[in-house]
Amino acid sequence: MSGNTATRKRHYDAVIIGSGHNGLVCANYLARQGMTVAVLERRQVIGGAAVTEEIAPGFRASIFSYLMSLLHPRIIRDFDLPRHGLTVLPCSDMISSVSYDDYILFSENMQKTQASFAKFSLHDAEIYPAFDAYLQEATKVVRSLLWETPVDPARADWRGFRESASLLWKYRRIGRKMYRLVDLLTMSAYDYLREWFEDDRVMACLAYYASIGTFAGPKSPGSAYVIMHHIMGEHEGAGGWGFIKGGMGAITQALASAGRTMGVEIFTETAVAEIRVTGGRAGEVVTTTGDVFHARVIASGANAKAVYLDMLDERHVPPEVLREIRGYRTFSTAFKMNIACERPPQYRILDKAKADGSLGSFPYPTYCHIAPDIDYLERAYDDAKHGWYSSEPFMTLCTPTIVDDTLAPAGKHVVNVFGGHAPYKLKNGDWAGEKDKFKKTVLNAIDNYAPGFSGDIIAEQTLVPPDLEAIIGVPQGHIFHGELSADQLFFQRPVSGFADYRTPVQALYLCGSSTHPGGGVSGIPGHNAAREILKDIKARKI
């Protein structure tokens, strides 16, 4: 539904800003309780970062997010998303290149991973099950915390004491596992892994995740936590890990379809200019075309900086909140490339992987990392740290068309490339003049591992952080809406005192990745925000 109609005031119980997956999840949970809900989307296509769009005639790609890994089974079940078109397709085990001609296979199958590690270190192969169990125990604790509403430990009243005490009591059995969480939040990925492993190539296979989407290297303090953030998905039952048939846009299309059955109205090409506040309460959303949406509740899936600094008049926001949100770190160095090609990358290790039986039933490795060792990852960060793009970027290459025939013409393929580092701002340079050179740098790096790939390209789309910000509104191109660091997690995400999905403005809530538990296509921020909204409605606070 388009928002380009005659200017008028519309009335709903709730208005959701942004049609990303979190906004749609929040809208659906509210509509399920009988509320009338409108979702306002700035772009012409719904979905936020989970969209599928054409990059060349006949070629469609997951433009931003590219793999199903975190969408929670609870959300899939609650809205019966398979009935609305969600189909998870298999993805091969991950292959990580440790040189042009050799690789590590990283699998959910413990024995297969151990056998691959053993090629480089018998010690690392033997210790891996103990490490995995140790990390999974800590991850189990964090998974349960994902569904919690962050408390305000500084709140000096009975409610604050009760909420903090209740949370501590609920997790009283964590015991010494708390120290594991402290280690993850404070240690570098390298130091954390070095306590277990001895081979830099094995460590790089795991430390790779610490650099995805963050302005950090494996030796940066606090980067260990990001490893865990990427493995927190739960895939039992209705979940799944792999590619989405039709691309990642099928997730948000399924959520939208489920929402429409409950009466959710979605308006595209409806950019928000202002959230109007009267008497300390948010009551209206005004679009750039002058349309006014009146609502009892307003929730935003847009990044928190945009809400506090662009959509609200600053006089409605306490000075300490403005100070914190301005300091909220969102500087991004992630890039994305979507490629239409004649054939998938012909990796040098392909014949070896087939001969080793590493691919199993797959004819091709659909999920590959280029990051040979710890020093490679750290050098990529060093380039960005000093204001320039990486001369040898680390990369994830995914080829969904091996299992999904809906994305490209028969016999042709789509490859998604995600990696780092490409700083939002370049020192003594700008992206207008450097983007083509950066593109060549990326393709040269791929060609080193898959000779001739750049010659197979039919069309490509290269997106650096300013592009990501301009297209989908992620702050400075940050895929998580902000760094996943200890000072920007749980009761400090996005700002202290207002991490419970509420804001200083009554009836205005945040439901996007700027809130706990952070980014990734999980839907949990949207779920949790809806829960708090319904709780406040029941208590007649709004």
Structural features, described:
The chain is α/β, with parallel strands linked by helices and 542 residues long. It has 3 domains: 176 residues, 3-Layer(bba) Sandwich (FAD/NAD(P)-binding domain), CATH 3.50.50.60; 123 residues, no CATH class; 143 residues, no CATH class. Helix 1 runs parallel beside helix 17 and helix 4 crosses helix 6. The longest helix has 24 residues. The chain is globular. The N terminus is likely disordered.
Shape: globular
Number of domains: 3
Low-confidence stretches: 2-6
User: What fraction, in percent, of the residue positions are helical?
Assistant: 25-40%
Number of strands: 18
Number of helices: 17
Range of strand content: 15-25%
Judging by the overall fold, what is the CATH architecture of the largest domain?
3-Layer(bba) Sandwich
Give the N-terminus to C-terminus distance in angstroms.
Answer: 29 Å
CATH topology of the largest domain: FAD/NAD(P)-binding domain
The biggest sheet amounts to:
7 strands, mixed
Please identify which CATH superfamily of the largest domain we are dealing with.
Answer: FAD/NAD(P)-binding domain
Provide the structure class: alpha/beta
Layout of secondary structure:
Blueprint: E1 9-17, H1 21-32, E2 37-40, E3 52-56, E4 59-62, H2 73-78, E5 88-89, E6 94-97, E7 103-106, H3 110-118, H4 122-145, H5 158-170, H6 177-186, H7 189-194, H8 200-207, H9 224-229, E8 243-244, H10 249-261, E9 265-267, E10 272-278, E11 281-287, E12 292-300, H11 304-311, H12 319-327, E13 334-341, H13 350-356, E14 367-370, H14 374-385, E15 394-398, E16 413-420, H15 431-449, E17 457-463, H16 465-472, E18 508-510, H17 524-538
Parallel strand pairs: 1-2, 1-12, 2-9, 6-14, 12-18
Antiparallel strand pairs: 3-4, 5-8, 6-7, 10-11, 11-12, 13-16, 13-17, 14-15, 15-16
Helix pairs in contact: 1-10, 1-17, 3-4, 4-6
